[in-house]
Amino acid sequence: MCGIVGAVSTKNIVPFLVDGLKRLEYRGYDSSGIAILTEGKIERARRVGRVSLMEAVAQEKNLQGSLGIGHTRWATHGGVTEQNAHPIISNETIALIHNGIIENHEEERNRLKELGYTFDSQTDTEVIAHSIHHHYKQHGDLFLATQEAIKTLRGAFAIAVMAYDQPNTLCVARMGCPLLIALGDNETFIASDVSAVIAQTRKVVFLEDGDIAKLSTNGIDVLLDRNNQPVVRKEQTSNVSLASLELGPYNHYMQKEIAEQPFAITQTIENILHTGFVPELFGENAQEIFQKVDSIKILACGTSFYAGLTARYWIEHLAKLPTDVEIASEYRYRDVIANPNQLIITISQSGETLDTMEALKHAKSLGHQYTLSICNVAESALPRESELVFYTRAGAEIGVASTKAFSTQLVALFTLAATFGVLNKHISAATAEQYLDELRHLPNSVQHALNLEPQIKSWAEQFTGKDHALFLGRGIHYPIALEGALKLKEISYIHAEAYPAGELKHGPLALVDENMPVVVIAPNDSLLEKVKSNMQEVRARGGELFVFADLDSHFSESEGVHVIRTPRHVGLLSPIVHVVPVQILAYHTALVRGTDVDKPRNLAKSVTVE
Predict the structure, then answer these.
(1) How many angstroms separate the CA atoms of 261 and 269, rounded?
(2) Under 8 Å CB-to-CB from 600, ≥6 apart: which residues?
(3) Contact (Cβ atoms closer than 8 angstroms) between residue 568 and residue 550
(4) Given a cut of 80, is residue 57 above it in pLDDT?
(5) What is the share, in percent, of the chain residues with pLDDT greater than 90?
(6) What's the distance, CA 411 to chain centroid?
(7) Average pLDDT of span 364-377
(8) What is the pTM of this model?
(9) Alpha-carbon distance 278 to 603, whole Å?
(10) Residues 298-323: pLDDT tens digits?
(11) Could you say which DSSP state residue 476 is in?
(12) DSSP helix/strand/coil, 519
C-alpha cells in the first residue's frame, strides 16, 4: 500500500516527484502530496484523489526545490481527507512520509501529547513526525533523531524524512515495507518501487528490514543495519524497461496485461523448455532440498492463494506429495504443527506482501528450513528471505487486479509439480517430454482464448445491471471460478461468489433466480458430465447460465444457456487457458459499468499492511 518517493539533488526535483507518484499510484490513490524545501522553509501541496489534482496545486503554488518527498496514500488510520494526506509536517520543522502501520500509535500519541504536541490528523504517521521532531530539537541531528524515534515504533514502516534547515539531507528507514535508494549523478532518489525512478537512473540499492540511511547528493552517506552496524547493500542495475511501464496502444493497464499473457508465459517457460523439469530451475541447492521434502505447504493471499489452490491438484497428482494451502494472514495466528521436512512455498507478485512475508518468518521461526518463493519482482523481500526462488518473468504489472502475474504463477507451480514428479520417479521421461510440449504450445492456446474477446464483450452487457453473480467449477477448475468471482467483484463491484459446482445444492442454489447470472467453467475433462448435471439444477430454478466450454465439448446454446467455446482441451494446463475468459469478462463488465478498471475503490496493488 501507499507509494513514496523522495530526492535530494542539485536541480528542481518537483517534476520527478510528481511523475514518480503517478507511476506509484497503483499502490494507493485516496490522496497524494509533496513537500519541498524552498528558501529555508517547507512548502507542501496535498489533495484528496488522484495525483493529477495535487499536481495542479503544486503548479499553482509554483513549487520548486532540490530536496523533497512525495506520497500517494491508501487510507488506513484516518479517513480520506486532505488533513490526513501525507507528507505530515511537525512544527514547521520536520516533513515525513510513511508507508505501513504503526501498531503502538495510540500509546505513542499519548506520550507525545504529554510532551506538549498537538495532532492535526488521525493518522498513525503523525506520531513518527512528532517523535523525530522531539529528538531533533534536542541535538539538531536529523539522522540520529530518526534513529532514536524508530526505536519506539512497533509495526511496519518505510519512511523518508527531511528537516527545514538541512538542505542536503534526506533520511530513510525500513521495517517490513519496501524501500529502495536510486543513485544518479549529483542526486539521490528513494522510492517504494523501481518504476518510480527508472526514468532517472538504473542504479538501485534495495534496503533490508531494520536499515536506516542518511542520503545526500553524493549518494549514501551512512547506512546502518538493524543492529546499528555499518553495512553495505549491493548496488544493482535494474533491467525494468521504461516502455513496459507505459500504456502504449491500450486503454487500461489491465487490458494491456491481459493481452501480454502469451508473451509473459513465453518468457517464463523459456528456461524450462531449455533444461526440462530439473530442480536447478528453483536454485542451486534445490535438488538436495527437494530430495528431503515429504510434503508441501503453500502460503499466499488473494489471487496468489488461488494459484496455490490450483497447484495442490497438480502437486498431489504429479508428485504424490501431500499439499496444504493456507491464507498467509491466517497461518501465523493458529497453533501450527511444524514438519521440518516440509517445503514452505510463498507466492506473491510483488514479493513484498506483508501478510505473506510475516507468514514466512513465522514458518522459519518454527524450524522450517526448506523455503521457496515464487515471485515476479527480483530482489524483493520474499526471495531474499527464501532459500529457493523462481521468478515468473511476467514483467511489470500495474493494474491492481492481477492477470499475467497469476497465469505465470500457475506456470511456475505446474513446473514445480512436474519437477518433483520426475525427481521422485512418478513421471516417466516420455511423460515429461509430453508436458514440455504442452507448455511449448500454451502461449498459442492462451492467444486463442484472447481472441474470444468480442464474444465475451457481448456477455458483459448482460451483467451490467446485475448486483450478484455465481461462479461454478469442479476439481482443478474450482480455483479458476474463485479467481473469476474475485476479478468481477474487485473491478466491477458486482458481488460475486464461487463454489465447487457440486456444492450448489448444499445452500447456494437458494440464491438462484432469473436475476442471478451463473458463470460455469466447463472444460472437457473427467468431471464434465458432473458439471452438466449441476447446470441442469440451475436451469430448473430459472437461473441463466454463461458457460465457458472447450472447443471439443458437446454443448449447445438454448434459452437461458449461453456458451463460449475456448480452445480445445489442453489437459492439465487447462486452468491457465480458462482463466483468460473470466479476466476479460470482468474487464468489459467494469467498462460498461463505468468503474475505474486499473484503480478500483478501496484497493491497492502491493499490500504492505496487515
Answers:
(1) 12
(2) 400, 401, 490, 491, 493, 590
(3) yes
(4) yes
(5) 72
(6) 18
(7) 96
(8) 0.81
(9) 38
(10) 999 999 999 999 999 999 999 999 99
(11) G
(12) strand
Identity of residue 25: E
Contact call for residues 76 and 103 (beta carbons, < 8 A): no
CB-neighbour burial class of residue 488 (10 A; exposed 0-12, middle 13-18, buried 19+): buried
Task: Give me the residue label for grid cell 534495495.
Answer: 206
Per-residue cell: 477: 477448475
Q: Which of 2, 171, 177, 301 is catalytic?
A: 2
In the predicted structure, residue 608 carries a pLDDT above the cut 70: no
Task: Report yes or no: 204 and 197 within 8 Å, Cβ to Cβ.
Answer: yes
Q: How far apart are CA 443 and CA 375, in angstroms?
A: 20
For residues 603 and 586, give the distance between their C-alpha atoms in angstroms, rounded to a whole number.
Answer: 16
* Average per-residue pLDDT for the chain: 92
- H or E stretch at 254: helix 253-259
Question: Which among 470, 461, 524 is positioned nearest to 495, based on CA atoms?
Answer: 470
Cα dihedral 443, 448, 451, 456 sign: negative
Strands (E), 242-360: 295-300, 323-327, 342-348
Grid coordinates of 367: 524450524
- The answer to whether the CB of 183 falls within 8 A of the CB of 174 is no
518-544 in b/e burial notation, b at 16+ Cβ within 10 A? bbbbbbbbebbeebbebbebbbebebb
Please tell me which residue, 424 or 562, carries the higher pLDDT value: 424
- Average pLDDT on 244-261 reads 89
Whether 606 shows a pLDDT value over 90: the answer reads no
Angle at 464 between CA 462 and CA 470, to 5 degrees: 75
Q: Which among 75, 58, 71, 82 has a CA at the least distance from the CA of 25?
A: 71
Task: Record the cell numbers describing residue 248, joined without a space.
Answer: 502504449
Residue with cell 540499492: 205
Which one has a higher pLDDT value, 459 or 530? 459
- Helix ranges (DSSP H) in 320-403: 328-331, 354-365, 381-385
Burial 289-317 (b: 16+ CB within 10 A, else e): bbeebeebbbbbbbbbbbbbbbbbbbbee
Q: Where are the beta strands (DSSP E) in 164-320?
A: 170-175, 180-183, 188-191, 203-206, 212-216, 219-224, 235-237, 295-300
The verdict on whether 2 is a catalytic residue reads yes
Cα separation, 538 vs 531, in Å, equals 11
Residues 306, 312, 313, CA angle at the centre, nearest 5°? 105
| Rounded CA separation 525/569 (Å) | 8
Which one of 22, 404, 487, 605 is the catalytic residue? 605
